[in-house]
Design goal:
The protein is of the alpha+beta class. It has 6 domains: 2-61, Helix hairpin bin (Helix Hairpins); 82-310, D-amino Acid Aminotransferase, Chain A, domain 1; 316-425, OB fold (Dihydrolipoamide Acetyltransferase, E2P) (Beta Barrel); 427-520, 5' to 3' exonuclease, C-terminal subdomain (DNA polymerase, domain 1), CATH 1.10.150.20; 524-639, 5' to 3' exonuclease, C-terminal subdomain (DNA polymerase, domain 1, Orthogonal Bundle), CATH 1.10.150; 647-712, BRCT domain (Rossmann fold), CATH 3.40.50.10190.
Length: 714
């Protein structure tokens, strides 16, 4: 069948592009072209559920939440390895190897000990069958759904794969991803993770694979478990097999034969490990030859042929001379400790993050204090604590908003700390410090969908001075874009694998057409979401566009003003008494996606200097987006939206892709959620409703079909 062949072609093509992008850093197509292929496969799989494959590229985004992790036995015991804490203990270990093998020189390998979570990947006939945590060594948690979301883990191995191959390694969080995740949690008012390993372990324990898919996890292989069909005689043969099937490997690796060689490799690794881009806490020593490993055997808990030298955690005292503020790419204001330089974990540290004002107050950090500094996960410098016994009399407390005069240090725009959040942030839409993130969000698929404008292009636009805010994009010429030079692609180890590239005429033409489409055709709710105003998500933007004809109407909106003045009010549609206190609002059935908090953020934005400047620039550009769902009077608003206040969940195979039904429900005032709960009003179910339908029935949530939905819409 044609569609069956097309599904197979798309899966193979997307797997190839995933490998090129995530493992080889040599992408061949744009993000927009990848998304087009992905959506085509997604739609075909929904239309033909009988061809479902758990290892399809579409499973990378995560499936339905689990009720609990199941446990299953390991094919072979998954043991830990013994730790060594001094060079003398390394010498003792080497002597035990010499005695056990009766040899003077022993071929060994030395590699980094990744600070992550141990995991076993079991492939059968070239496809990922399941993945387990270490557990107690004999049984582990089945985390297959979570592992399928990790982009650098191949789900299929291609031709010539052995009948059974068990690959063991570490799941970890790269340094850059860990830093971004903590910045995001700061912004959301959540506790930050202490180190990348804690972040990784907490992520893998999530029962919702979509949460895992959103986290920056990666995998590196370092060991062999069960194996059938491949002759493995040494570690080098195993690593060659990993390379053949493009399974990412732990690197760098040293080959030595003497104790002096082991100690030299450990010292060299200590210098290099701080630049690997992920946390390491030791050096793993392994016998190279598998026959020699078998001869040495195991104790009850660990192999005799391997050990891990643990580098001591390093903390240093220094003096905190000042606190400055860094404006993040999302507008978050992060206090930074300016320190007397001190050498920690391989580098000189003179600055360390203090996260936020609450963290400063909790640790009672003052300017002039002697503080303890370490690198979280051996990566990110942070202030651990204060040595209060050494506090000078002139040490002074710090208040971020007072120190800044309640202004952004980058643009002098207004700053705020939203209720329930710990981070202070800049509100200026055109703040230059936020340019890359603002432009990337502005161009994203759910915003204005600007073809070919991803983060890497946004970075180069800002660096080259062509754009310092999203609205600068509308001033770009074809020549500007075509001659934009993009960075060379790099591999996972940081090595350059291609030359600097031009953006090119073809991509420039595509992007300029997207900008014209955004200028004239994109509706108001897409523009509102694209502007990145705090608390204005997709649903709130759509409700605002129902209540306003065009963007310029929002700046002086009486509806927004009245809604913003309601104290401690979250669900307008559920509180008639409070609506009746505001006659301008009582006839509007305002969806609970738009409440006072969102209204206050919107009002603050339009009243700020940055918001006023953005409106002025939009007027100069002749841009004033109009609503596609505007209800011009109260009666029409009430009568014309039959699904207001109703929450739907969609499951199963329907006559059209789910996004079309989601759009239909939202245009008629309803809300679409991703999971069934007691607050769900209806489950719209097609063929193969699965676990969502089972849960809806257990909770007494009405299950409806397309005919019932159409009847509700009249």
């Amino acid at each position: 069948m044609l569609f069956e062949n097309r599904i197979a072609e798309l899966r193979e093509e997307l797997n190839r592009h995933n490998r090129l992008y995530y493992q080889e850093a040599q992408p061949e197509i744009s993000d927009a072209e990848y998304d087009r292929l992905f959506r085509e496969l997604e739609d075909l799989e929904k239309a033909h559920p009988e061809l479902a494959d758990p290892n399809s590229p579409t499973q990378r985004v995560g499936g339905a939440p689990l009720e609990a992790f199941e446990q299953r036995p390991h094919l072979l015991p998954m043991l830990s390895i013994d730790d060594l804490f001094s060079e003398e203990e390394v010498g003792d270990f080497f002597k035990r190897l010499q005695k056990g093998l009766g040899l003077e020189n022993i071929p060994l390998t030395i590699e980094p000990k990744i600070d992550g979570v141990a995991c076993s990947l079991v492939y059968r006939n070239g496809a990922l069958d399941y993945a387990l945590t270490r557990g107690d060594g004999t049984r582990g948690d089945d985390i297959t759904q979570n592992v399928r979301t990790i982009r650098n883990i191949p789900l299929t191995l291609g031709q010539d794969a052995p009948p059974l191959l068990e690959v063991r390694g570490e799941i970890f969080m790269p340094a850059e991803g860990f830093a971004r995740l903590n910045e995001q949690r700061d912004e959301e008012g959540l506790d930050t993770f202490a180190n990348p390993r804690n972040a990784t372990a907490g992520t893998l324990k999530s029962l919702d694979p979509k949460v895992v898919a959103a986290r920056p996890l990666a995998f590196l292989a370092h060991g062999l478990g069960a194996n059938e069909g491949s002759e493995m005689v040494t570690e080098d043969v195993f690593r060659a097999l990993l390379e053949k099937f493009q399974i990412p490997r732990n690197e760098p690796i040293w080959h030595v034969e003497t104790l002096e060689g082991v100690l030299t490799a450990i010292r060299e690794l200590d210098e290099k490990r701080h630049h690997l881009g992920h946390g390491t806490d030791g050096a793993v020593i392994k016998v190279l030859d598998f026959a020699q490993r078998e001869s040495l055997g195991f104790t009850s808990r660990a192999p005799r042929w391997a050990a891990a030298f643990k580098y001591p955690p390093e903390q240093k005292e220094t003096v905190l001379r000042d606190i400055t503020v860094q404006v993040g790419r999302t507008g978050v204001l992060t206090p930074v400790a300016e320190l007397d330089p001190v050498f920690v974990s391989g580098t000189t540290v003179s600055r360390a993050t203090l996260h936020n004002q609450e963290e400063i107050e909790r640790k009672d950090i003052r300017i002039g204090d002697t503080v303890i500094v370490e690198k979280a996960g051996e990566i990110i410098p942070s202030v651990v604590s204060v040595v209060t016994a050494k506090r000078p009399a002139e040490a002074r407390p710090y208040s971020l908003p007072e120190a800044l005069g309640h202004q952004c240090p980058s643009c002098r725009g207004p700053i705020e700390k939203a209720e329930g959040f710990v981070a202070w942030r800049c509100l200026n839409f055109e703040c230059p410090a936020q340019a890359v993130t603002r432009i990337t969000h502005f161009a994203s698929r759910k915003a204005l969908d600007l073809d070919g404008l991803g983060e890497s292009v946004a970075i180069k636009l800002v660096e080259s001075g062509l754009a310092s805010s999203p609205l600068d994009l509308f001033r770009l010429s074809s020549e500007d874009l075509a001659n934009l030079m993009l960075d060379p692609a790099k591999s996972s180890d940081g090595l350059t694998v291609s030359k600097e590239r031009r953006f090119g005429e073809k991509r420039a033409t595509t992007l300029l057409k997207s900008l014209e489409r955004a200028r004239y055709d994109m509706p108001l709710h897409r523009w509102l979401f694209a502007m990145g105003i705090s608390q204005i998500g997709e649903s709130a933007a759509r409700e605002l566009s129902r209540l306003h004809r065009k963007l310029s109407d929002l700046a002086g909106s009486q509806i927004v003003a009245d809604l913003a003045d309601l104290p401690d009010f979250e669900e307008l549609s559920k509180s008639k008494r409070k609506k009746e206190n505001h006659p301008r609002l009582k006839d509007y059935r305002i969806d609970d996606n738009l409440g006072p908090v969102a209204a206050r953020h919107l009002r603050t934005f339009f009243e700020s200097g940055g918001g006023q400047h953005a409106l002025e620039r939009l007027r100069d550009l002749g841009i004033d987006p109009e609503s596609e769902n505007y209800a011009p009077d109260a009666a029409t608003a009430s009568a014309g939206l039959p699904l207001v206040g109703k929450t739907f969940v969609i499951t199963g195979t329907l006559s059209a892709p789910r996004p079309e039904f989601k759009s239909l429900i939202e245009k008629n005032g309803g809300k679409v959620s991703g999971s069934v709960s007691a607050k769900t009003d209806y489950l719209l179910a097609g063929e193969g409703g699965g676990s969502k339908q089972t849960k809806a029935e257990s909770l007494g949530v009405p299950v409806i079909g397309e005919d019932k939905l159409k009847a509700m819409l009249g």
